[in-house]
Write the structure tokens for this entry.
Amino acid sequence: MRYLFIIIFSFAISNHSVLASNKDSLEVINLNDTLNKTETLSLLDSARYYEKTDIKKSISLAKETLKNAFILKNDSVIIEAKLFLSSHYIRIGLYDNALEYLQDAKKHYEEENNDKGQTSILQKIGDLLWYSGKFKDALSYYEDFGRNSLKNNDTISYIRSQIAKGAVYGNINRLDTAILIFKSALEHSESINNKYLINLCKFNIGDALLFSDRPYQAITIFLELVEELKNNKKDFSNFAGLYSSLANAHIKINQPKTARKYNKIAFEFALKDSLLTELSTYYDLEFQIYTSLKDYKKALFNHIKYKTLSDSINTKKNIKKLANFQLYYDLRKREIEIEKLKLENEIGHNQLKRNRYFLFSGTIVLLLLLALFINIYRSKKELNKKNKRLDEQKEELESTLDQLKDAQAQLVQSEKMASLGILTTGIAHEINNPLNYINGGIHILEDVRDEFNEEDIEETKNKFNLALKMVEDGFKKTSTIVKSLMSFATRENNELEKHSITTMLNNTLTFLTPRLENISIEKNCIESDELLVYPDKLHQVFLNIFDNAIKALAKVDDKKIKVATYKNNHTYSISIQNNGPQIAKKHLDKLFDPFFTTRETGKGVGMGLTISYNLIKEHNGEIKVRNLKEGVEFIIELPLT
């Protein structure tokens, strides 16, 4: 039945596709009958004709060219139209639109392995990103532009790529790098004896030196350039900029009169070529010159001129930008209206198509429903089988989980038995001392009994009291140890009890006394530290951490363990530090994992800290570990309530 479903569906799709494709192919044939490459290129020529006189019409014709080229599937015309449109979009400030078309052209030239085309596009994209202020992005394209130029043995393009790179580094304030790049470009320009590029490189080097606070070196280069250009003015174009830079350099070395001389020459060139930005620069430099000469009246006059001209330039730019956006808006509005009409025609066409295939589709739907019903029945049957299998797997998993719990309990018991060994050693050591007291008292009593003399009753009485005191002290000491031991007793108590954390820490250290003989213990615990805890479980945690600390200090000369407690807003914290070796960073995250150990095989199963972690979790607390400058710190955080 599954195969029947697939056959019916394929039959429906194939019939629909055949009918639709027949109609679509007729439409394409009709369009191609009315279009050809020559007529499409003629539209693009018309767009170029109106490029300077009617930009709106020029863009409209270029878009029409692009649309026709898509219908003809002529890639070369598509790219030509996109490049033309991108140049218009740059002019009217629509940089994102221009960048999209340039990227398309780049991709096309890469697929065609057109190195020359790629080189040209890389420069255009770099320039566009430069205009947009995206200097670092532009740098990447200029570098590719340079590599392609070298690959094609195009020295002039390579020099231009270097000049562009230097300009980028200058704009991102990496002036020393810019100077090195400009000097490299100068060497290549001199190798082909291209006077224009030589002069351009020298000017850029001078400007970079000027803006990196080396005005004297800049002046030397500018004056050499002025001397060279006296009889060869065709080899340079930015004379206004050159003399403005000379004036600026002399301002920096506090020679305002010389600066004014060069600024006047810059003004003449700017006025001659109608360079508004350079005229603005002239008034700004005049303001600085007269300020340096302390002629504040003229300085103010020139500053007002500078501000007025700058505002005028900005206003013109804004007006032009608004006009460009209005132009783009009008074009988009017209395109939307055309698309709307096309969409309405397409909706009508689709409605007819739907009616034509309605009966056919209804039949197919009925067959599909029948196939779907049969498929659902089979799926339900298969699902019942899977559910039965899942139930069996569930029982297996539950059995496995019980086995895992038993294994975990055995591991916990093993860890407790290990702790019991530690406790036994401590108890034996601690009880031995008070037993010596009691034994000594008994010996004294025996001596009193054997040497009793009624005449020397006072001395006998003193000996008797001393013996009683020794026996009493030994008894009290033994009683204290037994009480501490009781706090360690395995009671499987699942009820919280109020206990002093400091007392619990001291009890733990008491039983570890034999192992702490060469270790300095520093305690800094707060008072009023009673908390609701599971005492046997918390003792187990303390014992595990102290045991780890003692083992970590095995090869340390000056052994130290620091214990501290403190309260925060909602937590009670216990810090246990040792000055042993740090834990490897790669092991820190695994320290509380089951069976993880860094000890030699047979010297630990790696469950001590895992059990400690789980026991602290039962207290709704946290246990953490971190490396110190010297040693390791374990931090236990328990809730205050």
Notes: The beta strands are 497-500, 519-524, 530-533, 559-567, 571-578, 622-628, 631-639. The CA atoms of residues 220 and 566 lie 72 Å apart.
